[in-house]
Amino acid sequence: MKNVLLTAAVTAMLAFTGSAHAQEWKQTYKTIRYGITSAENEKDRIARYKGFQAYMEKQLGVKVEIFTAGSYDGVIQALASDQIEFASLGSSAYAAAYTETNGGVEPLLAQVDKDGASGYFSVITVRCDSGYKSIDDLKGKVLAFADPDSTSGYAVPFFNLVKQGYDPKTFFSAVPFSGSHETGVMGVFNKQFDAAATYINTEKAGIPQRMESKGMIPAGQICRIWQSPEITNGPLTARKNLPADLIAAVKTAMRDLPKSDPAVYKEISSGNEASNGYIEVDHKRYEWIIEMRDWLRKQRRQG
Q1: 209/42 Cα distance (integer angstroms)
Q2: Residue 229's Cα: distance from chain center in Å?
Q3: Residues 6 or more apart in contact with residue 57 via CB below 8 angstroms
Q4: Are 97 and 194 in contact (CB under 8 A)?
Q5: What percent of the chain has pLDDT over 70?
Q6: Is the pLDDT confidence value at 268 over 70?
Q7: Contacts of 178 (CB under 8 A, 6+ apart)
Q8: Sign of the Cα pseudo-torsion (20, 24, 27, 30, in order)
Q9: Cβ-contact 97, 76 below 8 angstroms
Q10: What is the pLDDT, as a whole number, of residue 19?
């Protein structure tokens, strides 16, 4: 009987110790800061993540702050300087963060659709009434990229256009950065730019579709004339120097989100009905993006 009681006591003590150990990160990280990049204007970004913020606070048991910046690099630098703990990044922004931190970040999860696909597409958009039907029609015109650290808004279209025989530096009259995907598309609508690079997930979901649903632009005004190969979805990214238990807690909360709070998941997925939760990803999945960014850097130095 004594042995049974002793075993039970030891088991209980180990369980308590394990539970206490799992909570140790909360003593250091009383606030978790989560970065989101500038695909849309800051006001809408903050509003779209309010439900997510409340959900994460409930799941983690600590305060959660949403961090935004005027550019992708602001979020990348915040990760590099330990100002934020986690971030939702595009593939190119993850590659930039990995380079900037000398491998100090790791990808955790990436979104998948109902068919199990985990990618999206860069597109070049124009006004539907512009008469532009192909890249050839844009010779000598202005193409706006989104941000130097945007996968779909810069790295992928630039890289693929060069491969297809269109060097953006010489083919277009100017290739400015608009600052965000929405700003670029709005610039096309307002005729500030002839074309702009952005992204779509499906025929029904993407930046132009989101802007239409928000009433920012009328339906049927923006058309696409070019589409990239599929791009791997960007990852939920964590700093490697965080406690393993903290990383695991955030990863679990995110993985459970689609079932635990479908409304919040839909909100941060931009209402993309094809979105179907997350899969685990590792660094190897994004190595080609890092190679592409290295190529782009060499091109910029040469130009």
Answers
A1: 18
A2: 18
A3: 63, 64
A4: no
A5: 90
A6: yes
A7: 144, 145, 146, 147, 184, 187, 193, 196
A8: negative
A9: yes
A10: 46
The answer to whether the beta carbons of residues 112 and 277 sit under 8 Å apart is yes
Q: Can you tell me whether residue 140 is helix, strand or coil? A: coil
**CB of 166 closer than 8 Å to CB of 124:** no
Q: Is 59 helix (H, G, I), strand (E, B) or coil?
A: helix
Q: Which long-range contacts (CB under 8 A, 24 or more apart) does 50-58 make?
A: 51/261, 51/263, 51/264, 51/267, 51/268, 52/257, 52/264, 52/267, 52/268, 54/264, 55/253, 55/257, 55/260, 55/261, 55/264, 56/32, 56/250, 56/253
Q: What is the pLDDT of residues 61-73, one digit of tens each?
A: 999 999 998 888 9
Q: Tell me the C-alpha to C-alpha distance, in Å, between residue 277 and each of 95, 111, 215.
A: 22, 6, 27
Pairing type for strands 231-232 and 63-67 reads unpaired
Residue among 100, 53, 50, 109 at smallest CA distance from 78: 100
Distance CA 192, CA 187 (A): 5
Summarize pLDDT for 13-38 with one digit per residue, the tens: 544 444 445 579 999 999 999 999 87
Tokens of 161: 């256009």
β-partners of residue 124 are 197, 226
Q: Which ranges of the chain does DSSP label H, i.e. alpha helix?
A: 2-22, 25-28, 42-48, 50-60, 72-80, 91-100, 156-163, 168-171, 181-189, 207-213, 244-260, 262-268, 287-302
**Tens digits of per-residue pLDDT, 130-174?**
999 999 999 999 999 999 989 899 999 999 999 999 999 999 999
Amino acid at 27: Q
Amino acid letter, 210: R
Count the neighbouring beta carbons within 10 Å of the beta carbon of residue 164: 10
Residue 152, SS3 per DSSP: helix
Residue type for 178, please? S
Interatomic CA distance for residues 161 and 152, integer angstroms: 12
Torsions phi, psi of 111, nearest 5? -75, 145
- Beta-carbon neighbour count of residue 165 at 10 Å? 8
Angle at 71 between CA 69 and CA 73, to 5 degrees: 95
Global pTM reads 0.73
